[in-house]
Design brief:
With about 500 residues, the protein is α/β, with parallel strands linked by helices. Helix content is about 45%, strand content about 20%. It has 20 helices and 14 strands. The strands form three sheets. A six-stranded mixed sheet has the order 8-7-6-9-11-10, with helices on both faces. It has a five-stranded mixed sheet with strand order 3-2-1-4-5. The protein has a three-stranded mixed sheet with strand order 12-13-14, with helices on one face. The longest helix is centred in the first third of the chain and has 21 residues, at about 60-80. It starts with a strand and ends with a strand.
Amino acid sequence: MEKIAIVDLGSNSVRLVLANIMPPGSAAVQGGHFVIFDEQKENIRLGLDLEKDGYIKPARITQTIKTLKMFKKLCESYGVEKIFCVAATFLRRAKNQKSFIEEINASTGLKFKVSTEDEEATHTYQGIINSLDIPKGVILDISGSNMMIIQYNRRNLINKEIINIGTLALSSIFTDGTSEEQAVLIEAYILDQLRRIPWLSQIEPDYQFIGVGGAFRNLAKIGRKIRKYPLDMVHNYSISQKEFDAIYKMVKSLPPGDRTKIKGLNSERADIFSVSLSTINAFMKRCGFSNIVVSGAGLRESVMFNYAVPSTLEKPISDVLLHSVYTMMSYFDINIPHAEHVCALCIQLYKHLRVLHKLPRMYVKPLRIAALMHDAGTRIKFYDRNRHTFYFIMNSNLYGVTHRDIILASFIAQGTQGDDFQMSEWNKYKDILLEQDLVAVLKLSVILSIAKSLDRSLSGGIKGLDCDVLGDSVIMKTITEGDCSLEIKDAMKLAPDFARAFRKNLDIL
């Protein structure tokens, strides 16, 4: 398994991300896969020097070189084969940019190239479009030195704009008055900048606002702490206008020194966080957005996607969720042909039993996830494998799927019969789930259990099936190749569970 690293030199911090690269796990997905296995971050704030006089100071250069040497040593200890070094566009404004890059290249052996605005916008877009299933979006990335705004539609980048002022400059310009007064001035200033971008006034209501970067990650973490959100996931976390307003009001009301006490807020970002929120609020007012979707993936993930899946250099991954699921399956060496066969049987059962379960199509996605990943728990331990699978899916941080669907898939894969299902566990997620979800999970978990039994020998012997609903019974006719007595006998053990879920007797032929 190949190991790569990405070093991202930004205006606020320098980050190292390390990833394992894997070849394609199935012909069903596009390209290869990557899984992040370590990361490191150091706050350097190179952008602060630029806002003062345009020069990066010797002390900052020394600190940067020391950090990069530390990163390189970590890469060597892991046996990393390739290191991709990216320097943000803000460095183009540094009067000593050339000498700075040459010095860190010579001192560390890491070869940095300063990105152009087009390259940085494209990378940010690629990181998001390959990890979120949102057809139309407007992306906002706030850094210490600039704001990047990107519009896309039907997975095509349409517009992009970079405003060369960020949180570091704003925090040094607007220093007079109370925090609330500063916020009003910053919002007015940002709104004036945004009014100069004509296409922002033409954003249609069906576009979604996607936030990427440290400010949004911290916003999501604070929101999760306040809500006591049961999932430890930032990616695809949704923040309503009401939730944002409450956090913004709280942050503005606190003296700067007290903001470090806010749960979920990185202490190193506390001094500029209020500025970030003022900028976000101005952006929401300008575009008419009332909700934020936070992306945990951006520029660094784009570099990984481009390397593991070279076709993403030209076009996005066609099925984000499926690619993400296969990434997990490949990484944990799950039996992919068996998982695919179980999934196919699940979908057949779902269709044939539609007259009984009467579930809307929105439940197909979590059922597919559960079916493909149903064996994941065995990678922890065979015994209690269903509970391990529950934990595995719940903490998989899959791309291209809502948090609610991840929760549903976890419960479907775990099963709702016997000791596996606990109502107290279900109630932890009640604020995310819908009232009808419990009944849906009961039915879908039985469908998955039957599908698993119908490939009990992992041979794919049952090629298809058909179901007839006759009175109080369901006759399930299997299309077989070879001896499938083990599969049918195993599936018939689930007849009592089927009766509880569907109020029908089950007979399998």
